[in-house]
Amino acid sequence: MGKISFPKGFLWGGAIAANQAEGAWNIDGKGMSVADVAMYKPHIDIKDYVNQWYVGLKDIENSMKAKEDTYYPKRRGIDFYHHYKEDIALFKEMGFKTLRVSIAWTRIFPNGNEEKPNEKGLQFYEELFKELRANNIEPLVTLSHYEMPIYLVNHYDGWVSRELVDMFVKYAKVCFDRYKDLVKYWLTFNEIDSVFRHPFTTVGVVEEKYANKKEAEKAIYQALHHQFIASALATQYCHEIIPNSQVGCMVTKTLTYPETCNPDDIILAQRDNRNNFVYTDVQVLGEYPRHLLNYFNKNNIDVKMNEGDEAILKQYTVDFISFSYYMSMVQSINAENREKVGGNLVTGVKNPYLPISEWGWQVDPKGLRVSLIDLYDRYRKPLWIVENGIGAYDKIEEDGSINDDYRIEYFRKHFEQIALAIDEGVECMGYTSWACIDIVSASTSQMSKRYGFIYVDADDLGNGTYKRSRKKSFYWYKNVIKSNGLD
């Protein structure tokens, strides 16, 4: 292809999450979150995402007693809490225009239901955002990124309880008031569609509490509705408190292809894609799609909605759509007889035309272009790719260098497809790679599954100096940003 063209002001950068990076899980008044329960499970296959993500009642009980972090890597992260100035300096060196971070709810309200916020938590994020501003990096801030207070799971059954709506809105308003002069771009819930992939992490639903799968499904839909309402109300107050602010939803873009041109394969793929659009339909169009309401009726799923809920969803829709994109999937009427692949709890038929990562994720740059066009044509809203990257084992050479050409190739191919989508009329605000610095993996709680342009010297059990060093991809991405995608 010819020269890649990105619009002037395109927001190049990277993304991390508090629960995977900050560490400092029990200092300065921070409470325990669902992430502090997540265990590193070396005895379970890294491609067995169901059991890697699973958290049961006994797991919660044991984790509440455990005071160490050896097998709870998200408790230590990469100690971004104490290294953030050093890390931001490296992001500035790369030329970042933006950095996506999240606020840990439990730093602000340790249990989630306190009357007053924790000042030390508020102070930390104020200093973080000021440091970003001082380095001309625009903060993109997620309010809830898989880090809800564990207290709300144990005492309120998570987001199944309507009371969490008010608690979250209070937390959001505190953040908007405190950071109104520092943060313009906000996201409400990270990958809100992940409620069925890992309900404990996303909405605090412990499935074994319920009599059967159907009862658990009802609880998850109820929890999802409460998050939709909380997100809409947070959007309302953000616009009121920060007049020039923009609020986005955040979803996982899972693109599904039919295996063949058999109409039955096409119908299966259409169903999966339609279900993926549910979460943006509600937050962008402001209403539940009719096919989901029909599903509720047919399956006796009674989602309790307060009077006025429909009006809230309709009135307070988002300004832009942000999404993660890692892979595409394939559907087939003969799926039972086909080889399967998966990643991040999404499983499908293997696509023979695509390479697969060491963690079983199908790499499909052209699928990102398809996704951008599909989303923009459907909603006509600005898009922001806020997660995209490849987890891989990195080798340190004798001279200390890390020649991660595989990572460079991954990003190059995806950037080419983003440019093509933009050339076809898609309005794309920016791109934040996941993750710009090595952090603890969300799914397998590993450090050895590395995503970053910056290497962090730490292993899966927390051993290491935590020293930061630049990979080959660091310098490559720096040139991409400097040239706005031309190089």
From TrEMBL:
Superkingdom, natural source: Bacteria
Sequence intervals crossing the membrane: none
Pfam families reported in the protein's UniProt record: Glyco_hydro_1
InterPro entries, alphabetized: GH, GH_1_N_CS, Glyco_hydro_1
PROSITE patterns linked: GLYCOSYL_HYDROL_F1_2 (PS00653)
Keyword annotations: Glycosidase, Hydrolase
Statement: the UniProt record of this protein carries the keyword Hydrolase: yes
Family of this protein: Belongs to the glycosyl hydrolase 1 family.
Database matches in PANTHER family: 6-PHOSPHO-BETA-GLUCOSIDASE ASCB-RELATED, GLYCOSYL HYDROLASE
Stated name of the protein: Beta-glucosidase
Organism: Clostridium gelidum
Classification of source organism: Bacteria, Bacillati, Bacillota, Clostridia, Eubacteriales
